[in-house]
Amino acid sequence: MIIVSSCVMGEACRYDGKAYPLDQAIEELKNMETIHICPEIMAGLPTPRMPMEIVNEGKEGKVLSKDGKDYTQDFVDGAKKVLDICKEHNVRYAILKDKSPSCGSQQIYNGQFEDKLIPGMGITARLLQEHGIQIFPAETAPYKKIKVYDYLESHGISYIKHEHEPVFTVEQANEMDVSIEAQQCKNLFLRNKKGDRHFLVILEHNRRFDLKEFGEENGLGRLSFASSKRLKKYLGVEPGSVSAFALINDGNHHVEVYIDRDFNPEENISFHPNQNDETLEITYQDFEKFITSCGYTYQKC
Q: What is the pTM of this model?
């Protein structure tokens, strides 16, 4: 489960009575199970409200309004309510609006109402981090990866993470200066001639692939590689980041899945977490568990 600041999802709860909608957050999280939170509203503060900043950021800091009133306890109360929600729903990740005296995770204002930023954390962000919840600023969060991490963990699928430079092809992946012992994959996104069927084909990375032969052998007729527009529409990823994990974005189960029959079920298998600067390694049994948990059956090829 993921929590996200309500304002970035378009809810008008900021101090000035406005929202702070972030298109990427709204788009990437639209099919995910998320909880929207505003600690200040949860503490009973009104909207709109007086601007507030943290003075002496840290555990001894106080939250003061522009007119000098102390609202520290309100912010602490709101943070505790958010933490209670996180505990109840086993939340692992929080995507929070940066610069906020509640939700800021990288920067906050300096407490002098001078419109100047300093490194620091808001009251809620700090409390959640202290309790092991990973915080990401909404403005720069790696949404695609967070969604994959959360999905795997919520389904009991453990993974090994390998970070590396972005790679766009199998050839580039083979040249990475990263030791990944797992089976690597070639992930192909195809369409039929009419464009009303789409296929995710997951092959061992060195396997030769002939588009015409594949279509004929599987009774699919004439096939072609799907466009980047179709890739974005059905799997929610960009070219170079096609992965089995992209199936979490296909809520309508439009895509049909084919998996190489020659994979070794005794060895781990690896995929990008829908962004090509990391590789996640999982067991083959967990790979099959992931596919079925997404609601798919698949064909061997």
A: 0.90
